[in-house]
């Protein structure tokens, strides 16, 4: 009996040694490069996040404006890239004239002088709207952007033409699988090298449809991310990357990341070898997707030498802090 226990102890020790050696970043190397910065919504008006619900009109609770930019506009995107963004996240909706409008909200009533569901309008109709109409920082006493946003809602074609060499993360704002098929059609018409600079995320159904038609485009949805991370936590210690993690944008909350096998360098290397790109998010609080890495304190939580992606709502701050070497 003692002999059996000795053998079991040896096996446990050997397994422990294997797991450690196979997952420690002390024995892994990464290219010495700066993190990839993803600007969520580009440079946008910040708003009070207390008590937010899915239907909260954030334009009605902006903080006193510190700049002139409105999210999902070409000037905002240009300013984001100039500030240090490598990728800008944009939101899209199909229009009745077979285009995609770049705009955040499901309906027009909050931000614009229009009404109704965004996707039941033509691009020509949407171009006539003032997308700065509803922004107020003082409960409706003043509207600092009213009249300044007429014609600023771009189409996806306009965005891609304005930034032919830039990377974008395209957010599909519905759960309609047909929307994924429509977006796939648009992306199929792009040159391969242009398509390689685009990623797509959003509802499970449209993302799955697009992924089926364009498997080379990196995608992510809530369910696909859950499938990836659960499987990786279960057996990633072996060094095997689950098929669910291949060719996707892997979004990892900064407080979850240290629990992933091989974090940071081995994990990044494994995901890169699987055709995927990792982006750190802000802390996950159990209620859904986390926010971005949006404060200097959160920047300091990033491991020294980290060379993956960082998702932020504060691109200017993130670029400044990283450049200053405060991690």
From TrEMBL:
PROSITE patterns: GP_PDE (PS51704)
Gene3D superfamilies, A to Z: Phosphatidylinositol (PI) phosphodiesterase (3.20.20.190)
Cited Pfam families: GDPD
InterPro entries: GP_PDE_dom, PLC-like_Pdiesterase_TIM-brl
Record-annotated GP-PDE domain positions: 51-322
The protein's name in its UniProt record: Glycerophosphodiester phosphodiesterase family protein
Biological source species: Phyllobacterium phragmitis
């Amino acid at each position: 009996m003692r002999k059996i226990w000795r053998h079991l102890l040896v096996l446990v020790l050997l397994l422990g040694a294997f797991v450690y050696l196979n997952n420690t970043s002390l024995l892994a190397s990464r290219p010495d490069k700066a993190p990839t910065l993803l600007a969520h919504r580009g440079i946008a008006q910040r708003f009070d996040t207390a008590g937010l619900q899915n239907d909260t009109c954030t334009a009605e609770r902006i903080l006193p404006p510190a700049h002139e930019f409105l999210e999902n506009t070409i000037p905002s995107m240009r300013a984001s890239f100039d500030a240090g963004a490598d990728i800008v996240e944009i939101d899209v909706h199909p229009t009745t004239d077979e285009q995609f409008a770049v705009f955040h909200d499901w309906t027009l009533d909050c931000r614009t002088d229009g009404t109704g569901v965004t996707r039941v309008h033509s691009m020509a109709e949407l171009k006539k709207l003032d997308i700065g109409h509803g922004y107020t920082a003082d409960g409706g006493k003043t509207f600092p952007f009213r009249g300044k946003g007429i014609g600023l809602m771009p189409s996806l074609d306009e965005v891609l033409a304005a930034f032919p060499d830039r990377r974008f993360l395209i957010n599909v704002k519905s759960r309609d699988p047909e929307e994924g098929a429509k977006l796939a059609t648009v992306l199929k018409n792009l040159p391969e090298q242009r398509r390689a600079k685009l990623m797509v995320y959003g509802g499970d159904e449209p993302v799955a449809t697009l992924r089926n038609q364009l498997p080379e485009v990196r995608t992510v949805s809530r369910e696909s991310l859950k499938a990836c991370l659960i499987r990786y936590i279960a057996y990633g210690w072996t060094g095997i990357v689950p098929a669910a993690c291949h060719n996707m944008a892997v979004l990892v909350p900064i407080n979850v990341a240290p629990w992933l096998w091989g974090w940071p360098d081995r994990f990044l290397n494994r995901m890169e070898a699987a055709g995927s790109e990792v982006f750190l998010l802000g802390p996950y609080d159990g209620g859904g997707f986390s926010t971005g890495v949006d404060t200097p304190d959160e920047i300091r939580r990033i491991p020294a030498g980290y060379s993956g992606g960082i998702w932020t709502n504060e691109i200017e701050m993130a670029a400044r802090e990283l450049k200053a070497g405060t991690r």
